[in-house]
Specification:
Pfam family, one: Sigma54_activat
Number of strands: 14
CATH topology of the largest domain: Rossmann fold
Strand content: 5-15%
GO molecular function: ATP binding
Strand order of the largest sheet: 2-1-3-4-5
Structural class: alpha/beta
CATH superfamily of the largest domain: P-loop containing nucleotide triphosphate hydrolases
Protein name: Sigma-54-dependent Fis family transcriptional regulator
Helix content: 40-55%
Organism: Faecalibacter macacae
Keywords: ATP-binding, Coiled coil, Nucleotide-binding, Phosphoprotein
Distance between the termini: 69 Å
Number of helices: 16
CATH class of the largest domain: Alpha Beta
Length: about 400
């Protein structure tokens, strides 16, 4: 339901315009204002979609109303009505934000066509604004949890790779030691992709028993094995239209690898115990801390699957390779613990940062996070080099 305001000092013209609009669409709500002062007050008190305003009026002319209304509500659509001598003023109104202007007396078809286009324009702008806000909030929500902290050359290279591949549907193999943030990379790829409205489904292949991995990935039908008391959708089907992240894929059994390969080749999966084929449209991201080339040589990983997955390879550096990022990471973790765990908000002095840089971080960022939490609990404020030496044993 659209709301329209007519601002016109001549009663007869107001009556004609209102009658025309209400006859055209009974769902339109049409209000009137006899001058600019009344018009601007009504604009401030109501949410109009469109204003049709005369230009030359006593007390406050249409140009003044337009300028004031635009400051109050930039989304409001204005159609100005001008006499033949007001064309230059009407053009100036367009520069100030008016949607269009009509000459007096307005042509009926031109009037209705302009009104409909202006209302459609308003609706489109509102929809775009709402969509941008939704996208911004979604991105903020996801990014806050999966923020990539640091600006070292090594991390910058990873970020650049993500930007290049995210908007494609290319499969990505993410390599790196445990605790480096491979999951983080997967989330950023999905977040920046065209699939971000659909789910990112994560599967930790190392945490699922070999005898259950196929059921987890492809689903099963009731009675297909002991414990299968009802039909179950697999992760591939749940990720349809979105992204599936196969973490620690180097730990997947050869049998499951064969089925994953078929899913990638044909875009179809078959639940365990069923001959039914289900079409799936998923983007596959995979990660591992293993040397898959070595795994292939030793017969534990399929070479054909490796080549399917490794269209793009992103190597995530260990923390020892990006120690310049440690101060930023430490401050980020400290703030997070303070906000979410209720710990005292403590700072780290420069010598504490330097002491942390000297440590051999075999556990990478995950280990650093644990150390920061320990120091936040046990250390003084500010946390010093002495605190690091006392509470961080290597």
């Amino acid at each position: 339901m659209s709301k329209i305001l007519i601002i016109e000092d001549e009663q007869a013209i107001r009556n004609v315009l209102k009658s025309i609009l209400m006859d055209e669409d009974p769902k339109w709500v049409v209000d009137e204002a006899e001058n600019g002062l009344v018009g601007i007050e009504k604009i401030k008190q109501n949410e109009y979609d469109l204003v049709i305003s005369d230009i030359k009026m006593p007390m406050k002319d249409g140009t003044e109303v337009l300028v004031e209304a635009m400051e109050y509500n930039p989304e409001l659509q204005f159609v100005m009505i001008s006499g033949h001598g007001d064309i230059e003023i009407a053009v100036d109104c367009l520069k100030k934000g008016a949607f269009d202007f009509l000459s007096k007396p307005p042509d009926l078809n031109r009037l209705l066509n302009t009104v409909r286009i202006a209302l459609d324009h308003k609706s489109l702008k509102s929809s775009n604004k709402a969509l941008k806000k939704e996208n911004k909030e979604l991105k903020k929500k996801v990014s806050k949890k999966y923020t990539m902290i640091g600006d070292s050359p090594e991390l910058t290279q990873v970020k650049t790779m993500i930007e290049k591949v995210a908007t494609t549907d290319a499969r990505v193999l993410i390599l790196g030691p445990n605790g480096t943030g491979k999951e983080l990379v997967a989330h950023h790829i999905h977040e920046q992709s065209t699939r971000n409205k659909k789910p990112l489904v994560e599967v930790n292949c190392a945490a699922i028993p070999a005898e259950l991995i196929e059921s987890e990935l492809f689903g099963h039908v009731k009675g297909s094995f002991t414990g299968a008391v009802k039909d179950k959708q697999g992760k591939f089907e749940l990720a349809d239209g979105g992204t599936i992240f196969l973490d620690e894929i180097g730990d997947m059994s050869l049998s499951a690898q064969a089925k994953v390969l078929r899913a990638l080749q044909e875009g179809k999966v078959s639940p365990v115990g069923s001959e039914k084929e289900i079409n799936v449209n998923v983007r596959v991201l995979a990660a591992t801390n293993k040397d898959l080339r070595k795994e292939i040589d030793e017969g534990r990983f399929r070479e054909d699957l490796y080549h399917r997955l490794a269209v793009i390879i992103i190597n995530v550096p260990g923390l020892n390779d990006r120690k310049d990022d440690i101060p930023a990471l430490v401050n980020h973790f400290a703030e997070d613990f303070s906000l979410n765990l209720g710990l005292e908000n403590k700072s780290f002095d420069d010598k504490a940062h330097e002491a942390l840089k000297e440590i051999d971080w075999t556990g990478n960022i995950r280990e650093l996070r644990n150390v920061v939490e320990r120091l936040m609990i046990l250390g003084a404020n500010p946390i010093s080099e002495e605190d690091v030496k006392m509470y961080v044993k290597k």
